Amino acid sequence: MKVKLIVAKAENNAIGKDNDMLWHLPKDFKFFKNQTLGHTLIMGRKTYESIGKPLPGRKTIIITRDKNYEQKGCEIANSLNEAINLVDDNETPFIAGGASIYKQALEMDLVDEMIITEIDNKFEADTFFPIYDATKWTEISREFHCSDEKNKFDFSFVVYSKFL
Ligand SMILES: NC(=O)c1ccc[n+]([C@@H]2O[C@H](COP(=O)([O-])OP(=O)(O)OC[C@H]3O[C@@H](n4cnc5c(N)ncnc54)[C@H](OP(=O)(O)O)[C@@H]3O)[C@@H](O)[C@H]2O)c1
Q: How far is CA 135 from the centre of its chain?
């Protein structure tokens, strides 16, 4: 099974503040949808609650330590490993954050590919993408997008594959 990680991060690795997103980039929302539609999203309880509902067309697995936690239309796991075990063998799970789940997935060496929207701006934040060993990853594609009326910042969709 190939495990992918998907994140949008700023130049200073900022990914969130007050359990919310830091920017509004409709092109990135569309990209996220195209990448993940028909697949499985694995996310921490805080990220799920900031979204507030299961995203249509995707299986959502929420990770929490709360054994009684329930959310309609979602599956619940009490650890990252348990979440991965809920994914069918022929399925591609996407590690969809937040910071604590990204950190654990990278430390546990679970991720095969990282799909990163790199935003060309710094943001004041309280949540950051973890520092990881860049020598273990190779860039396999990069697509630059200029800011426009609806997307305030320049950004790039970048895919990194793990060196084998
Ligand atoms: N820019 C992006 O692409 C992006 C993507 C996703 C999220 N975000 C942002 O990231 C922020 C949220 O990140 P976060 O790190 O604060 O929270 P999070 O990772 O979304 O959720 C943390 C929660 O996950 C559960 N959890 C974590 N590790 C666990 C483990 N090993 N076993 C069982 N449960 C575990 C715990 O839930 P319980 O407390 O219920 O036990 C913990 O409180 C928000 O600002 C959000 O907007 C940004």
A: 21
For position 163, what pLDDT does the model report?
83
- Residue 45 Cβ < 6 Å to ligand 1: yes
Stated as kind and residue range, the H or E segment containing 101 is helix 99-107
Torsion, CA 69, CA 74, CA 77, CA 79, rounded to 10: -110
Ligand 1 center from residue 102 Cα (angstroms): 9
The parts of the chain modelled with pLDDT lower than 50 are none
Spacing, Cα 48 to ligand 1 middle (Å): 8
What is the pLDDT at residue 41? Answer: 98
CA nearest ligand 1 atom 9, residue: 16
Residue owning the nearest CA to atom 32 of ligand 1: 79
Q: Which CATH superfamily is domain 4-162 in?
A: Dihydrofolate Reductase, subunit A (3.40.430.10)
In the block, residue with structure tokens 């979440």: 83
Residue 83 is predicted with a pLDDT of: 98
